[in-house]
Design a protein that fits this description.
Radius of gyration: 17 Å
Strand content: under 5%
Number of domains: 1
Largest sheet: none
Helix content: over 70%
Structural class: mainly alpha
Low-confidence stretches: none
């Protein structure tokens, strides 16, 4: 479900920030969403790897 986040954010920002004068705001919003997405995926990966390691250990 998290893989939808950048695409949905792009649709929302396209809808609200259609004018070219707001391009810097759109870039900043998409950067923040991408950073949030990458962080969430890293946390999820860590959780999966720790769960797999604990299953192997015991």
């Amino acid at each position: 479900m998290l893989w939808l986040l950048p695409g949905l954010a792009g649709l929302v920002t396209d809808g609200f920030l259609k004018r070219g004068t707001l391009l810097p705001a759109r870039v900043l919003i998409m950067f923040a969403v991408t950073l949030l997405f990458a962080t969430a995926m890293g946390v999820l990966y860590r959780h999966i790897m720790l769960a797999a390691a604990s299953d192997e250990a015991g």
